[in-house]
Amino acid sequence: MQASLVWFTIFTLMSVAAERVQFRITGRNLPDSDVIHTIDPYVRVYYSGNNVPGEKFLGKTEYVFNSPNAQWNTIFTLNYVPGSNQTINLKLYDKDPGLDNLIGQSSFSLDDYKNKGEKAVMHLDAGTLIVKKA
């Protein structure tokens, strides 16, 4: 009886069609983290959920020099399975010689992202990250 339940669960998960999601990130009013210059921002993107243990590094944007209003060209792609608790975690950094500074981070649910027209707006302590369909 248990084996049947396991196979049913596996079959059900496999039969759920994954949808490819692509997005880009924009930054608005990002804070100056240094006294000398404005922020040189970039974002590291992590993924969790859908039976992935822990967080998986998805990629990072390029960094943009002296730009509190950054528009990154990097396109992130992943498979979305509705109702699978997939989460995207964004970590905003300031590129510096030596050690880069973590400025802020925020997360959003892919279910919410899809339900809101493939857009997520994340307000950090200072500044905003906007994720939109690519």
From TrEMBL:
Gene Ontology molecular function, alphabetical: calcium ion binding
GO CC, alphabetical: membrane
Membrane-crossing residue ranges in chain numbering: none
Pfam families: C2
Keywords on record: Calcium, Metal-binding, Signal
Domain (C2) ranges: 1-123
Signal peptide, first to last residue: 1-18
InterPro entries, sorted: C2_dom
Name of this protein: C2 domain-containing protein
